[in-house]
């Protein structure tokens, strides 16, 4: 453990962590705490892109800024909910790191995996390191059988049609070289989780080196994971779109 | 080249092979005519098998939920001491 931290601390790279938020008042504080806990010797900044949350998320972020420093936590809010893709693009404008990490604010992505992303990238010089839930050391908690079936079916279909080269296509816990993210994101047009798929498939087509690290994913404890008929239709439409245009 | 072109090329190659088989008549023609159906059905079965196997081996991590709750408690304590009001969920 100590060895790993020393290795990471040696390099002089900076990491920009972009976290889009909407009504994540409690979770954003916990995420920030955990990031600082697990990235002790790393130069990083957290960019919170909040879409005008009515629950006071931005107030909490400002308090966190007082605590940790405005150079470590950047609040770059937007007026209203404008979507994930544009949130990343917005956050990217203010990122000063060599690498950009994207992750969710709802604690389904645990900051304790950040060192393994960084380590993997340093070892392989990969352009993208993506977290995968579907390998042995990874995993998901909080999904019922139906949800797992849909996920598995969707994955097999996507693998058969797209040959993407990654095991987890819809995952959104990723580390990118900043220039690579800028390049890939400019050619993506989809929304929602199809956007995440488009990003990784386009990157794969462009020949960028993509490595994977196992991550565990604890689905929202409060409220159920939404996966209805319309999501499935969107997914299939997204697959066909990616099949034809990448 | 675009991915769809790769897939179509593969299909064209398979079709050419199939037509070649039909013409050469090494295998009785009645069998050869059914080959595409066998192919599609096999592909479907393989897909279902992959889904089934994947489902059985689906990695789960119940202990992570517990660890997460511990992390949340730790974080809340920290913020309480620092006077940051994180409120409750």
TrEMBL record, chain A:
<keyword id="KW-0808">Transferase</keyword>
<comment type="similarity">
    <text>Belongs to the glycosyltransferase 2 family.</text>
</comment>
<comment type="function">
    <text>Transfers mannose from GDP-mannose to dolichol monophosphate to form dolichol phosphate mannose (Dol-P-Man) which is the mannosyl donor in pathways leading to N-glycosylation, glycosyl phosphatidylinositol membrane anchoring, and O-mannosylation of proteins.</text>
</comment>
<keyword id="KW-0328">Glycosyltransferase</keyword>
<dbReference type="InterPro" id="IPR001173">
    <property type="entry name" value="Glyco_trans_2-like"/>
</dbReference>
<comment type="subunit">
    <text>Component of the dolichol-phosphate mannose (DPM) synthase complex.</text>
</comment>
<dbReference type="Pfam" id="PF00535">
    <property type="entry name" value="Glycos_transf_2"/>
</dbReference>
<protein>
    <recommendedName>
        <fullName>Dolichol-phosphate mannosyltransferase subunit 1</fullName>
        <ecNumber>2.4.1.83</ecNumber>
    </recommendedName>
</protein>
<comment type="pathway">
    <text>Protein modification; protein glycosylation.</text>
</comment>
<dbReference type="GO" id="GO:0016757">
    <property type="term" value="F:glycosyltransferase activity"/>
</dbReference>
<feature type="domain" description="Glycosyltransferase 2-like">
    <location>
        <begin position="16"/>
        <end position="184"/>
    </location>
</feature>
<dbReference type="InterPro" id="IPR029044">
    <property type="entry name" value="Nucleotide-diphossugar_trans"/>
</dbReference>
<dbReference type="InterPro" id="IPR039528">
    <property type="entry name" value="DPM1-like"/>
</dbReference>
<keyword id="KW-0256">Endoplasmic reticulum</keyword>
From TrEMBL, chain B:
<dbReference type="GO" id="GO:0016757">
    <property type="term" value="F:glycosyltransferase activity"/>
</dbReference>
<dbReference type="Pfam" id="PF08285">
    <property type="entry name" value="DPM3"/>
</dbReference>
<keyword id="KW-0256">Endoplasmic reticulum</keyword>
<feature type="transmembrane region" description="Helical">
    <location>
        <begin position="34"/>
        <end position="55"/>
    </location>
</feature>
<comment type="function">
    <text>Stabilizer subunit of the dolichol-phosphate mannose (DPM) synthase complex; tethers catalytic subunit to the ER.</text>
</comment>
<comment type="pathway">
    <text>Protein modification; protein glycosylation.</text>
</comment>
<dbReference type="InterPro" id="IPR013174">
    <property type="entry name" value="DPM3"/>
</dbReference>
<keyword id="KW-1133">Transmembrane helix</keyword>
<keyword id="KW-0472">Membrane</keyword>
<protein>
    <recommendedName>
        <fullName>Dolichol-phosphate mannosyltransferase subunit 3</fullName>
    </recommendedName>
</protein>
<comment type="subunit">
    <text>Component of the dolichol-phosphate mannose (DPM) synthase complex.</text>
</comment>
<keyword id="KW-0812">Transmembrane</keyword>
<comment type="similarity">
    <text>Belongs to the DPM3 family.</text>
</comment>
<keyword id="KW-0328">Glycosyltransferase</keyword>
<keyword id="KW-0808">Transferase</keyword>
